[in-house]
Design goal:
heterodimer; A: about 250 residues; alpha/beta; Rossmann fold; 2 domains; 7 helices; B: about 270 residues; MetI-like fold; about 0% strand
């Protein structure tokens, strides 16, 4: 079953095309990584797919019932406690008060947020706890599709690894569909089933590679070796490591 | 946030009052120096003024005058808070409306309150209506600018997040945008409250509408500087009571997270 289908999607910012003819399909139980150099339009594409931006061209077909978005920054309400921030993910759902608490507890438990921290404000939490709260907010409503827009870029290596494992356990291995934006090949190989490469200028998906084995069962050696091979041997993946930000004006 | 947290917050506020009292003590010392230099006819000493203040406050009629001025100022402030916030939110969301509204705000700020009092005396007569309208007109631009600024500078990323979390546009307005606006509105409300009190006393004095302004007019005709200063102190006490009795507790409740974000040394 296809949960997300982008058909020849294109978008224009300030009269300049940033995405053209992007076609992509994500099936149920599949986490697809979208990689590409900085400024190639990955985040714009994710926002178009999620419905935050209306595309100028093309069609977006969503086959999922409910989705959640984990942004690059945690985007927590600074005036709300950790518990209230997680509860925000249940907005618009007819959930009884007692069940509400149970679901919040379950979501916090999945991302290892202890109950003693639930009444803290975001300013009282560490960077990792904030991002875990954002992940709990996304998971609390049990969405069938998840969008991740470079959610762990600002975290240090150890915390990043821990968060990646959390995503594997809570999303990639649980039959949900998802689109994971990243420019880190190792992250993509660790979390996703397929890796799509977006053109440097946003002119479509250049290639889509299936990663052997399932996320969570790949060894570190396999991840590092595959990343090395893809970047050195595969000309399309070489662009992922480029850092020249494309200028809009 | 439980009762213990709120009690702790009130206790911390009261404790921090010592710093305020020491500031007032310095002011009183300077006042005393002035009184000794110029004599009690020009500037009565603080102790004499406070004695007069207690005498005035002991009279129920005078307490009614203070209450009357406070209620008028509060009514004007409330009107300004409601209409200023509503107009500010609309202007904050729509840059075109903001561009149209800016000149009106400049006009309202630029026209001196005395001119409004003259016009309002003609329109509403010499009663409470003039005083309330003067206070409202003087306070409205401050609230408008605060609300518009709060909406314009809101974090749009939070709205996108709320949209993805499934909040309706009405829920996003009340739970996200208006909450973000508070950081700019509360300082504006504090300024507007002070302005409303000043404008109300001035309007009462010029329109002969009773209240503290009327009592000040009487003290002026009797050349009673001591009573005039005591009435000024009473109006300041009334303003402080409203600010720290209503506005600041509301702010503390709505912005409790800011206190949590402050480092320990700043909080205590």
């Amino acid at each position: 079953m296809t949960l997300l289908q982008l058909k020849a999607v294109g978008h224009v910012y300030l009269g300049r095309p940033v995405l053209e003819q992007v076609t992509l399909q994500v099936s149920q139980g599949e986490m697809v990584a979208l990689v590409g150099p900085s400024g190639c339009g990955k985040s714009t594409l994710a926002q178009i797919a999620a419905g935050l931006i209306i595309p100028r061209h093309g069609q977006v077909e969503r086959g999922y019932a409910r989705c959640a978005f984990v942004f690059q920054e945690p985007r927590l309400l600074p005036w709300a406690t950790l518990e209230a921030n997680v509860a925000l993910g249940l907005s618009g759902l007819p959930v009884a008060r007692s069940e509400r608490r149970t679901r919040i507890a379950a979501a916090c438990d999945r991302v290892s947020l202890e109950e003693s921290d639930w009444q803290k404000f975001p300013s009282q939490l560490s960077g990792g706890m904030r991002q875990r709260t954002a992940l709990a907010r996304a998971l609390v409503a049990d969405p069938d599709f998840l969008y991740f827009d470079e959610p762990f870029t600002a975290l240090d290596a150890a915390l990043r690894r821990r968060m990646q494992d959390l995503v594997v356990v809570t999303a990639s291995d649980s039959g949900k569909g998802g689109l994971f934006i990243t420019h880190d090949m190792h992250e993509a190989l660790r979390i996703c089933h397929r890796i799509a490469v977006l053109d440097r200028y946003g002119h479509g998906i250049l290639d889509c590679v299936s990663v052997p084995e399932t996320p969570g069962h790949r060894s570190e050696e396999m991840i590092f070796e595959t990343a090395r091979k893809l970047i050195s041997d595969h000309p399309l993946f070489a662009v992922v490591e480029e850092h020249d930000e494309r200028r809009l004006a | 946030m439980g009762r213990a947290y709120r009690a702790g917050r009130v206790a911390r506020f009261l404790w921090s009052g010592w710093a305020g009292f020491s500031g007032l003590a310095v002011f009183a010392a300077v006042w005393q120096l002035g009184a000794e230099a110029y004599g009690s006819f020009v500037l009565p000493a603080p102790a004499e003024t406070i004695q007069t203040l207690f005498k005035l406050a002991a009279d129920p009629d005078n307490r009614m005058l203070v209450l009357s001025t406070s209620l008028r100022a509060l009514a004007g402030f409330s009107l300004a808070a409601v209409f200023g916030t509503m107009a500010g939110v609309v202007a904050g969301y729509h840059p075109a409306i903001m561009r149209l509204a800016r000149p009106q705000v400049t006009l309202l700020i630029g026209v001196p309150p005395i001119a409004w009092i003259v016009l309002l005396m003609i329109w509403f007569g010499m009663g409470a209506g003039t005083v309330i309208a003067t206070a409202a007109i003087a306070a409205l631009p401050l609230v408008f600018v605060g609300a518009a600024e709060g909406i314009q500078t809101r974090d749009r990323g939070l709205e996108e997040m709320a949209r993805m979390a499934g909040l309706s546009w009405l829920a996003r307005l009340f739970q996200i945008s208006l909450r973000q606006m508070l950081h700019a509105v509360f300082p504006a409300l504090v300024m507007a409250l002070g302005t409303a009190f000043k404008a109300a006393v001035m309007a009462e004095l010029l329109a002969n509408a009773g209240g503290i302004g009327g009592a000040l007019a009487n003290a002026r005709s009797a050349l009673d500087v001591e009573a005039a200063l005591a009435w000024i102190l009473l109006s300041v006490i009334a303003l402080i009571s409203v600010e720290y009795g209503i506005v600041q507790p509301l702010r503390a409740e709505a912005e409790a997270w800011r206190e949590a974000a402050q480092p320990w040394g700043v909080r205590r």
